[in-house]
């Protein structure tokens, strides 16, 4: 099990010092397949820092380009969140029946037994396709997918294709920020980011392995297999935990390097979700005061900026 901890470190580190680290763990904790939680947290933190330094040391691309790339992937994942169940059911030809996403009508597919209208594709395929293209550094494929998201949210002519999903239905993101496909700030920002990336040379974009899609597939299985919709408390708690973990990882990476690239995706997600709260503050916020939610969204921005500035100030005397 100790080898799982090595996944937090970059490949170059694992090849050089991986066996040495495993030997140290085996010597420090004999007979244990897993170190104490405190040691696990420390190793995971060190792994994030090592990955962050490896990213910053790579001079093949400027920090702002990497930041925009990360922001586009974060926005694509954010847009996909409410439709995880829908895409999973469509891919496996599952009729969710009474567990359908809370839209105006069941509106499922030709193989389903539900009533009313039929639609051909789930809206979630658009952000999913955009996310896969961005992971592989194919921004020119992500641009039309993001543009189709704008079209689907701005017009009602695509009902036969995507149904009303994301237009009149619920698209609920953690911390009380209601977003639907009609909210064009999300899709518009995503499309703009993809367009900037597409204008750059494709070789300059970082390419990630398809293994990065494993968490997405797992989330789809959890949402579709267990019929957990995005408005359920369990879904929201899980999303909140992931957001907190992502913010902590961004803080650790920024503190280790003093680089601003991780501030870009945090800012993009915060801006998109904050405007949704400002536009519709009473939509799904009965359990959260407006001011508290806004502070939770905005507070990480100056914290990351101050952290980067301090790290750069410490690096100068060195």
UniProtKB/TrEMBL annotation:
Keywords: Membrane, Transmembrane, Transmembrane helix. It comes from the Bacteria. The keyword Transmembrane applies. The keyword Aminoacyl-tRNA synthetase does not apply. The chain crosses the membrane at residues 63-84, 118-135, 140-159, 179-200, 212-229, 235-255, 262-279, 291-308. This is Integral membrane protein. It comes from Streptomyces asiaticus subsp. ignotus.
